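This section describes the prediction task in plain terms. A model, or a person checking by hand, is given the sequence of a single protein chain and must write out its three-dimensional structure as a string of tokens. No templates, partner chains or ligands are provided. The sample shown here is typical of the held-out split.
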Amino acid sequence: MDADVTTAGALGTAASIIDALGELAGWVAASVWWLALVLGALVIGWEALQRRLATRALAERAHVELVPSATFEPSPEQIWRQGMLLIRAAGSGPWWVPRRARTARLRLRADGTRPLTYRIEAPASAHALLTTTPYGARVQATPVNPITDKHRTHVVRAVLTLSGKPGSRLRDVPLEPDPLQPLIDAVAGLRAEVGDLAEVCVDLSPASRWHLAVRRAQGMRLAREEARREAQREARWLTHDSTDPVPVALGRLLDPAQWRGAPRPQSVRSPRPRRVDREGALGKLAEEAGLVRVQILVRCASDKADRAQARLARINAAMDVYAGPSRLSSQGWSLGPVRIGPDWWPWRPRFDERWQQALMRPASGGWAHLEEIAGLLKPPTALADLPLLESEMPTYQAGKNLVPQGWYRGPDGRERLLATHEDDTLFEVQSGKAGWGKTMRAQVQAVASAHNGRGLAFVDPHGDSLTDVARYLAHDDIMGRIAVFDLTVRDDSALLACWNLLDMSGRPRPYEVSAAVVDAIAAALGWDDASAPRALTILAKAVEALVAVNSLAVAAGVPGQQATVFQIRPLLTDPTFRFLVVGALDPQARRWWTGAFPDLPKDGLATVLNPLERLGANPVIRAFLGCPVSGYDIRRAMDESQVVWICPPGTGPTDRLLISLLVRDFLRAGLSRRDVPEGDRHPFRFYLDEMISLDGGATTVLAEITEQLRKFGGRLHGMTQLLHRLSPTTRAALLQNASCLSTTAGSVEAITPVTTQWASSVTPQDAAGLERWWHYASFTVAGKRLGPLQIRGPELEEVFGPLAKPSRTKALLRAAHANTGARPLSEQSALAVGQEEQVREFLTGLTPPIDNQNQEHYA
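The expected answer:
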């Protein structure tokens, strides 16, 4: 009976619960609209709160631009660390920041003024994290202001999402070549003047654990369903089910066992689904470290129709480099020629909101591992081939104080003549094979500088360059500044100017003139205090004495009776002439001649006289150096911005001595400009062809020019076939100070000293394979190193064709000779031969008559 009571009580309780549930269900059914309204209000309120908090958090962001060096090549470990730093920066906001606002943005931007800028944007609290990158000193992290863009007429948008199975990976893109290269190429043809703009924003957000758990569950479910379907297919194969597909049925019909009536199995055990491997099924979702949500937004704009759309298509194509089991695909649908996507309502406001605030929508983006997007986590590397934009290096225009460098073909196929600014182009070195465009390129630059009103001296041992450029210089504003010193003449009627190394007409400092002449001769002959102390002493005292004589002649108003270097011989060997010279000296200078000179062995004089005898043996050189008043004055040429053409007679030992004197005088003249205020020192360019011959005669002078003359307006352009044949001192100074460095084709051995300066961007084999007239060159523009670039050397006709005046070439030459006071070679030779007598005549009036005792003393 107790059992019955207990049972009845239980049944009553159950009935009560059922009645209560029925009443609750009835109440819910009656109040469903009110519940939906309350739930909707809660959802809307929560969403509004999330949006308000997200807007507040994203109002303050840190902006940092990463500027890589020319040698930047990160390792995979550095990129991984940078990615983890970005994840940390994205989640560094206050605790109340919604997950959709916990983002770090990588902004890759091109607007036609720079190839591709790379910025990082993250919460303001992550500023310290962003300014210290794992890339070290090869990447400069600079805080910058937010970008403010002008309005552009045409704007197109795109959202790239990761499509594919959950856990599938993007293609493993190697770091060499640079993974950003397709994107760089896609934005290479932008033109700032028409408002072109292309931006790619990659938003990263830390992985949410609950969201990741949902994705993992989804991935496992899909894997199990695939395993069950595979098992069902195998079962149908084994049982020859009537539902077998057509290929299976045809296979049975073709089986000979079926024709013989082979018995079919009575029963086949259905295969069980294979066990799903968790790691294989989840793929990248199995590992949480380095897993991020990724959202890629693209926006292109332009003031011209269709340019923005075409640029967007190229960017979409560039992202195909990541296509693998998973890929980056653009959201939207195509209906014939119409593309429905983020540019359409209602998706456009949502895109603009995400673009402005870097919001990460819960349903947007995809999952990626840092290794998959490693190419987007760093700025362009040294392996990237960046296009050269016109904003970085100008296009040559005549008369704009620009120096033409070479023809460059841009990514859009347009060829333009690159140029550097006159004031930026300090020193240039050209190397490479003979006849492949070095001299022609220098001639183009020289003509451009002449038309810019700048002064220059072109030293050409071959003498052909003047003929090439004359028609382009035959203009009135240049004729008054042109000067020619052609020592290759042979006809007695040919005009020739002169240069007295000891000329004091311009009242220079005597000790500077003496030092320049002695140093030049000693350097050419390899003399120093250890190897030839006696010869140096004799030469120095002889030059000092003759310079003193010339100072007296100029002061007396008879510059035509000055001595030249060829009077060193009678000074050392003729007692009568020496008596006249020494008698004109001050007592201190006279003491050496009366005390030390008589004790010198006579055979010691030959060391000094032999090189002078070799110079005097050439009638052209004797006429050039043996006349009293100089038409050649490089200091005056520098101050007056003259255009000077110098053609030495050759490259032999004697000719190298003359070249040594010329180049040493360049240095002397430049240093003598200390007396000119810095702002009044007009820049002056020295173009030195066949630098091997010049360096052989001038030793360290070329190095000294690059090291010392910059402040005094001196500029040097050197050309050589074999850079390694220059003296180590000269080569080191040229490479150290070169604003422009270029090479044509040549042997690997000859090219290596140049390509070594460019790290690994251009190999000797690359340069050795260049076609004729082509160069690899690097430049300095506005303090920034550009290149190396492959350029085609300019030619005179294609650059200055409209300026050519062949009919005025003879007038130009006449003006050049008139400006230097040139006379026929026969007259100059006669004047040089008789100059010793002119000096004797002048000194006779200054010195008492010689007697026998004095003659023996000076002998």
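For orientation: DSSP finds 33 helices and 24 strands in the chain.
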